[in-house]
Write a structure and sequence with these properties.
The chain is α+β, with helices and mostly antiparallel strands. The protein is built from ten helices and 15 strands. Bound molecules: zinc ion.
Length: about 375
């Protein structure tokens, strides 16, 4: 197998072989689970390595992982303020417990370098103990999202907006876009590492997607972009904008079955189910394209019940031979004075009684008018 040492899909490799695996081998130990297995199983080659794509897949813990770390692809012209990585403090005690109550383990917090520490929050006007989500590209800290105990948020002032965990999608054909850092942690916890989050949630009116411009190079090689957003109105507005920017043909949708987001789904159904629901994402419905799944209900009904009668006038012997649909033109013919007009009047009354339809008459020969009223 070809060993790609410098770049993958245009992303320059920063740390080559970050887990110290056997270079060039296609099978080997798993950096995620091998060390946790029974001594006799620790040397088992449970993972396969794809050096061309820079990805590994473990068949024991059923997770994928990146073989390298990467430098940023593309550059941003603008100058931004950069937070300093030295401010990083790992999460402890109460905060760890809080994450555990949300189904997030210490391992995931370590993997994603989630920190904590005091920070001035404008919403409360004082320093609060905050959780700090570090927005990293390669070895550079680009931004920090602070969250206090009252669910107030702030981003690092003047820093560049990017997707949270954007590094994680390099090498993968697919990625999952969520609405918050907690969803990224939940997916990582469930063995879906290639998940990212928008930095500032969704809003109803205008979704300023400058973070997408700043990270657009990361989506060049993606054939499947799974939108795992909230199903409320702001979430739908963000979804529409992301679909417009990324192209409907590459977008997929997740159905969290009544749960608000990935984190709630994790807490309700567990890791395995969360991973499954992501795998079951269905393609975004293209305009004017109907797939079988879209009309499955109608087809089942037709197979079971056959053709349904259309609108009927309420005369059983007549209804058994005639019914109609809207947007139709009905001609009633017959010899003079055989009751055509009276019958049409009867139909009009029947449709009104059954469906509340209103009628406009154009009747040049039937006088007086009050007979139609
Ligand atoms: Zn493993």
């Amino acid at each position: 197998m070809q060993v790609e040492e410098y770049e993958i899909n245009g992303f320059a490799i920063d740390t080559f072989n970050q887990h110290g695996l056997e270079t060039g081998k296609t099978q080997g130990v798993c950096p995620l689970c091998s060390h946790t297995r029974k001594p006799k199983n620790q040397k088992l080659k449970c993972a396969s390595y794809d050096w061309e794509r820079g990805l590994g897949t473990c068949h024991n813990c059923n997770t994928t992982f990146q073989l390298h770390t990467y430098n940023r692809k593309g550059s941003n012209e603008k100058e931004y303020v950069r937070p300093e990585m030295t401010e990083f403090l790992p999460v402890v005690d109460k905060v760890t417990e809080w994450f555990e109550s949300r189904g997030i383990s210490q391992k995931t917090l370590d993997d994603l370098k989630v920190g904590q520490g005091p920070e001035y929050m404008p919403q409360t006007g004082k320093k609060e103990n905050t959780i700090q989500f570090n927005y990293v590209i390669g070895s550079q800290l680009i931004n920090v999202k602070y969250r206090d105990g009252r669910k107030n948020f702030k981003l690092y002032k003047g820093a560049e907006k990017i997707f949270y965990n954007i590094d994680s999608i390099v090498g993968y054909d697919s990625c999952i876009i969520t609405e918050g850092e907690m969803d990224v942690l939940a997916l990582h916890e469930a063995g879906v590492p290639n998940a990212i989050s928008v930095p500032n949630g969704a809003t109803l009116s205008h979704n300023n997607l400058d973070y997408l411009d700043n990270c657009i190079d990361y989506f060049d090689d993606k054939t499947k972009i799974i939108l795992a957003l909230d199903s409320d109105d702001p979430g739908l507005a963000l979804r529409a904008e992301l679909v417009r920017r990324l192209g409907a043909e590459t977008c997929y949708l997740v159905d969290f079955e009544g749960c608000k987001d990935a984190n709630e789904y994790l807490m309700t159904h567990g890791k395995e189910k969360l991973k499954q629901v992501i795998n079951k994402a269905r393609s975004y419905p293209l305009e004017n394209v109907t797939t079988f799944r879209d009309i499955e209900g109608e087809v089942k009904d037709f197979v079971k019940n056959g053709f349904k009668p259309g609108y009927q006038v309420g005369l059983s012997n007549f209804d058994s031979i005639f019914s109609t649909y809207t947007s139709q033109f009905i001609t009633v013919t017959g010899i003079p004075s055989s009751g055509k007009s009276d019958f049409v009047d009867q139909m009009v009354v029947g449709y009104n009684k059954n469906y509340g339809w209103k009628t406009g008459f154009a009747s040049p020969e039937n006088s007086p008018n009050y007979l139609h009223a």
